[in-house]
Q: What sequence folds into this?
């Protein structure tokens, strides 16, 4: 007979939605067959730091030099200048993309690095807790990466209570949990990886991080749709969410800050996966343009901003007569709905007959771009492939395109132009309103356009 204090319910393992009976489809997130029966038990509430008292805002002191150097410049950039003590960081990405690799490299860098505030080494060792791999497997990976640091302690454990006890004994400078879906707390009877286990385990890690001022890194699995597995509350609990992007066909990896309470969001770090691990790419613009073909129709260089970093990327398009009743629209690295919108503008305003054409668009290098500043580059690339006329290799473009064909201004124009000058571009095609508000005297030729017809005339002079 069930106790009156115990309540049974069904919970969606994708979003955490609760129901009194089993449902085939979650009414909240739409997932199928995701409900699992769980038991709710009354337990004591978690608290941070014992008794606390209100403190006046001016009396709170903050020292930016207290950040811990990871030894990896690209990772420091994403985190906002280094690791903040007591922070909780979630790292997600597809299997085999490099999450465990960069974690080991980071721990090695932290144990070797020095604090910015002084010349004293970072106190305490690092603790790497693995719930998926054995100690020998981690040792093999570390040997492949040429990492043999005695300050890195490795623990194979899945019970969160045992993990925190070991952490209190070791007093690590950084604690890593790989992964959150494998650990569990003894206070809950559900299986590891369930919504309740992930939520409570993350909450206990947050209490430990804030109470002992120890930064904690959590590795999270992803679903087949590419989102971080588990309830959305996991992303709300943590201070920073880092996400690895990349495909098996490219050796390049992009680490993106989706959420960051201690720095700018949408910052990215670019890495290349090699035999010795992830290698930093200090100038990704040259990397993305390294294999660009010369004098080929259907290719344009656009300038986009990723956080505070300007990137020069190549946009490719292939426009061909369709053999089907309905033409195909395919886009890789950019929103296909945005491409369809720009195609409609080209047909209505630009006078191009694209209704019977298959259009394939690609951002080279595996980069995903969401900024509307690449609109003008997409328009120029499609026109170039449609007319089979190459665009000058020394021209780059940027600008947002509206539904009436107007070219709208974008932000950080000076940063984009300076980046293009370093690479060797000679001319820029940008919105006219940006030309009027330009605060620098560029060395390259600047051409301003107000609508897509002016842009097409400038890119394809008769």
A:
């Amino acid at each position: 007979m069930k106790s009156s204090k115990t309540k049974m319910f069904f919970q969606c393992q994708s979003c955490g939605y609760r129901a009194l009976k089993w449902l085939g489809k979650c009414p909240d997130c739409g997932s199928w067959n995701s409900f699992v029966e769980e038991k709710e038990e009354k337990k004591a509430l978690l608290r941070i730091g014992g008794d606390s008292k209100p403190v006046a805002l001016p009396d709170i002191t903050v020292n930016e030099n207290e950040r811990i150097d990871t030894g990896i410049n690209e990772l420091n950039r994403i985190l906002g200048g280094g690791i903040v003590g007591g922070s909780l960081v979630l790292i997600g990405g597809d299997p085999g993309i490099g999450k465990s690799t960069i974690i080991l490299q980071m721990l090695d860098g932290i144990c070797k690095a020095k604090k910015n505030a002084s010349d004293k080494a970072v106190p305490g060792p690092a603790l790497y807790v693995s719930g998926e791999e054995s100690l020998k497997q981690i040792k093999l990976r570390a040997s492949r990466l040429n990492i043999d640091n005695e300050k890195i302690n490795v623990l194979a454990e899945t019970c969160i209570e045992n993990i925190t006890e070991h952490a209190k004994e070791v007093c690590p400078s950084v604690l890593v949990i790989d992964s959150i879906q494998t650990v569990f707390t003894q206070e809950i009877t559900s299986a590891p990886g369930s919504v309740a286990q992930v939520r409570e385990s993350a909450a206990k890690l947050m209490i430990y991080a804030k109470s002992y001022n120890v930064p904690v890194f959590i590795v999270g699995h992803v679903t087949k749709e590419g989102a971080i597995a588990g309830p959305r509350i996991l992303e709300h609990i943590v201070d920073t969410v880092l996400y690895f992007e990349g495909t098996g066909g490219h050796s390049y990896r992009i680490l993106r800050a989706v959420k960051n309470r201690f720095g700018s969001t949408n910052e990215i770090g670019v890495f290349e996966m090699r035999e010795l691990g992830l290698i930093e790419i200090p100038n990704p613009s040259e990397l993305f343009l390294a294999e660009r073909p010369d004098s080929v129709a259907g290719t344009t260089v656009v300038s986009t901003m990723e956080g505070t970093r300007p990137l020069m990327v190549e946009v490719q398009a292939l426009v061909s007569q369709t053999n089907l009743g309905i033409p195909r629209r395919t886009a890789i690295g950019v929103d296909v709905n945005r491409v369809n919108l720009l195609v409609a503008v080209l047909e209505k305003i630009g006078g191009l007959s694209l209704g019977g054409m298959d259009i394939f668009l690609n951002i080279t290098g595996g980069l995903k771009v969401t900024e509307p500043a690449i609109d003008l580059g997409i328009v120029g690339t499609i026109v170039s492939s449609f007319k089979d006329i190459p665009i000058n290799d020394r021209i780059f473009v940027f600008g947002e395109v509206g539904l009436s064909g107007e070219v709208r201004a974008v932000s950080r124009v000076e940063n984009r132009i300076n980046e293009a000058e370093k690479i060797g571009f000679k001319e820029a095609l940008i919105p006219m309103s940006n030309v009027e508000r330009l605060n620098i005297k560029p060395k390259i030729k600047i051409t301003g356009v107000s609508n897509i017809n002016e842009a097409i005339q400038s890119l394809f002079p008769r």
